[in-house]
Amino acid sequence: MDKAPAGTYPVSMLHQWKQDHESSIRSNGTALKFQSVAELKIYVARLLYENKVLWSSFGPQSLVAQADPGSNMYEVWVLRKLDTIVPNNTKIINAVEANITLLNSTETASFFHFKIHAQAFERHQYTRLDTYPMFPAEFEKAMLS
Predict the structure, then answer these.
(1) What is the SS3 assignment for 133?
(2) What is the three-class DSSP state of 104?
């Protein structure tokens, strides 16, 4: 696009592409319907595992960060939050909401805590928040049981 002749990609077209892309990301997982809570939990657990591996490998409390606080691995963490963790969280929220009737009341409550965390975590990536709710361990426990 940068090398295309002026006017090839009007601003309105680029804005529409961006809006369409954001809409498709936001709806990712909304059409998933599972037959059982076990199937839903398997789907969610895979996404949680991926997030956890990224957090433990590159996050602020990872061995890499602790061993060398000045390391540029922080840049990898910033990228993985945006390209993997935030989208995974959106998939989890959408899939659980589309199948929430499969959950019991305790699992539902833990999901809502996760949803609050995930939405605040995403906002924090774009607009620094002084604080936000941390990942609720009870959600991980509920999804892995």
Answers:
(1) coil
(2) coil
